[in-house]
Inverse folding.
């Protein structure tokens, strides 16, 4: 019997709740807790309608450690699945330590007042989790998450050493709005407007946001897209855990329309994270903008098209160079049909459910703080095929994003 508490009732929280409820033998008791309980109740009603499973709900402010640890002590789940916002990672880890509960998340900690995300804050919890005999699993979404697993799987089965990786995240979906983000608008805009960092010969090299563009043709007729190099958190953990990697880059597709809107919003100051005073009130521009934009959890019924996210790895096998590509394609409409969410929330929520399953089934349950690629990728990759995210590995004759 495994009781879990999901924290966060947004687009990703809905998918995690739906997917956990599909596996009642593994997730025997599910509690969904968030800041706004009515959103938890809406999700619970949807889960009951789809699966017949009843999940319980609770109101909690995850920024408040005593409040959250009291709830955890009362409910005594085995594991917390954190799909609130990156700002809550540390307070949720603190509450888990206080209540003796395992922890996992899909995005690394980011301080509210600095748009810079890195693992150092969460890695500092290593000794405390070890001493408490608890596991903290970091980054079990799609990217980070499945992309780390793709790298680990390729390293294990196709290479003696990996020398270069390119993580390519294409969203070919169209929601019909002039401008909307597919996950939390504040987090999304902070991420895409940050300076780019990529790994080159043993160090991170900084370049301007979106300053490098390439064209990428996805497999299986998903199409050809403009992709832009940007920083993404898995570059930090993968280059640490695979020290043979000399170059690591992350690329994401954006439409001309998205970039045009983002540029204007940046130029007029609407993406700022510092509070400004307006008619006697303090307003943070990016938070106000997020209020105006469509809620990502409402994009599901209107989004059509595919996502294609994967890792191209170049390295050596038996002394010869080879290039392998591991990728996953999801269809927005099929995701909506199954769990009433578009594919961005779906492709994040399914790996979160699988990461939790790996911990509950004790495939991955060692005391300490771990990035997902530190564990055996095989059972996770098997479960991706079984639970809605089938993937493929192909060998490429050549690969050049420079041209
Ligand atoms: P949403 O904004 O849709 O949902 C976030 C939820 O967290 C909301 O229900 C919100 O409550 C709740 N929340 C916020 N602050 C608190 C708090 N202090 N206490 C309790 N609950 C709180 O975000 P998404 O579902 O789109 O994203 C969820 C997470 O998934 C984010 O961390 C995001 O970075 C991550 N992500 C990871 C990806 C990956 O591939 N690894 C991809 C996409 C997202 P309220 O309803 O009151 O606002």
């Amino acid at each position: 019997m495994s009781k879990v508490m999901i924290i966060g009732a947004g687009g990703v929280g809905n998918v995690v709740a739906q997917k956990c409820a599909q596996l009642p033998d593994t997730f025997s008791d599910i509690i969904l807790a968030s800041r706004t309980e009515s959103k938890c109740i809406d999700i619970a009603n949807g889960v009951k309608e789809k699966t017949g499973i009843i999940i319980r709900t609770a109101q909690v402010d995850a920024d408040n450690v005593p409040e959250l640890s009291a709830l955890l002590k009362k409910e005594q789940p085995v594991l917390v699945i954190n799909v609130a916002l990156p700002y809550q990672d540390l307070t949720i880890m603190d509450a888990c330590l206080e209540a003796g509960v395992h922890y996992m998340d899909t995005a690394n900690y980011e301080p509210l007042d600095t748009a810079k995300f890195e693992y150092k804050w969460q890695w500092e919890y290593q000794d405390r989790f070890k001493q408490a005999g608890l596991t903290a699993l970091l980054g079990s979404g799609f990217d980070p998450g499945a992309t780390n697993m793709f790298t680990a799987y390729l390293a294990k089965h196709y290479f003696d050493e990996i020398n270069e990786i390119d993580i390519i995240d294409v969203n070919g979906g169209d929601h019909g709005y002039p401008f909307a983000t597919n996950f939390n608008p504040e987090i999304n805009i902070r991420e895409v407007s940050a300076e780019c960092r990529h790994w080159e010969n043993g160090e991170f090299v900084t370049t301007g946001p979106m300053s490098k563009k390439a064209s990428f043709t996805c497999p299986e007729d998903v199409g050809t897209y403009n992709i832009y190099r940007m920083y993404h958190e898995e570059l930090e953990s993968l280059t640490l855990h695979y020290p043979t990697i000399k170059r690591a880059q992350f690329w994401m597709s954006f439409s001309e329309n998205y970039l045009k809107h983002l540029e204007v919003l940046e130029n007029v100051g609407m993406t700022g994270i510092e509070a400004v005073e307006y008619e006697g009130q303090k307003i943070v521009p990016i938070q106000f903008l997020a209020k105006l934009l469509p809620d990502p959890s409402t994009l599901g019924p209107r989004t059509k098209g595919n996502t294609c996210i994967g890792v191209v790895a170049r390295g050596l096998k038996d002394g010869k160079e080879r290039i392998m590509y591991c990728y996953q394609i999801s269809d927005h409409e099929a995701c909506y049909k199954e769990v009433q969410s578009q594919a961005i929330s779906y492709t994040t929520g399914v790996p979160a459910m699988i990461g939790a399953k790996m911990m509950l089934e004790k495939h991955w349950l060692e005391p300490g703080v771990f990035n997902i690629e530190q564990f055996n990728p095989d059972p996770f990759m098997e479960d991706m095929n079984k639970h809605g995210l089938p993937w493929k590995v192909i060998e490429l004759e050549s690969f050049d994003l420079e041209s």
The first strand starts at residue 3 and ends at 7. The pocket of NDP is lined by residues 8-13, 34-36, 39, 60-63, 83-86, 88, 106-107, 141-145, 183-184, 187, 296-297, 344, 348 (CB under 6 Å).
